[in-house]
Design a protein that fits this description.
The chain is of the alpha+beta class and 121 residues long. The chain has a single domain, classed as NADH Oxidase (3-Layer(aba) Sandwich), CATH 3.40.109. The protein has five helices and three strands. The protein has helices spanning 5-8, 33-50, 63-70, 95-102, 110-113; strands at 13-20, 54-58, 76-85. Strands 1-3-2 form a three-stranded antiparallel β-sheet, with helices on both faces. Bound molecules: flavin mononucleotide.
Length: 121
């Protein structure tokens, strides 16, 4: 989508993760399909980072256009797009993305996302 074009302009590789929501074996729903796809992406991210390669994941794309362009069979769902490459200079980015790129990464404290005993809002 428009807002993501800058991330993809100069990259050597654009990818898209795909999954089958039903098992090939018996056609029944695989409720872990999206979990497994995210896990595979996590593995890809860890390995890429280990090799000094940056990955930027993007949910902002047009799934139907991607399926058509890449001739992805109907039984597969596209999940997220990603671009991979070696880190460029933040100066290459438009001002808004440059600010975002240079911003300090903030993570939620663990006690906000982990609960012991029962679910906590
Ligand atoms: C599934 C998923 C979808 C995302 N979609 C977008 C997106 O469409 N556009 C975008 O700029 N960032 C998106 N992000 C965030 C970036 O990939 C990235 O995680 C974020 O900019 C933080 O950067 P860092 O990994 O360098 O800390 C998405 C992240 C995930 C996990």
């Amino acid at each position: 989508m428009e807002g993501n074009r800058e991330w993809a302009r100069n990259v050597p590789l654009i990818g898209i993760s795909c999954t089958k929501l039903n098992f090939s074996l018996n056609g029944k729903p695989n409720k872990f399909a999206l979990h497994d796809t995210g896990l595979a992406m996590g593995g890809l991210l860890a390995q890429a980072t280990f090799m000094g390669i940056r990955v930027h994941q993007m949910g902002g794309y047009y799934p139907e256009k991607a399926k058509e362009f890449l001739k992805i069979p109907y039984e597969y769902e596209t999940v997220a797009m990603f671009v991979m490459g070696y880190q460029g200079e933040a100066d290459q980015l438009p001002a808004e993305l440059k600010d975002r790129e240079l911003m300090e990464r903030v993570r939620k404290p663990l006690d906000e996302i982990l609960a012991r005993g029962s679910f906590k809002f």
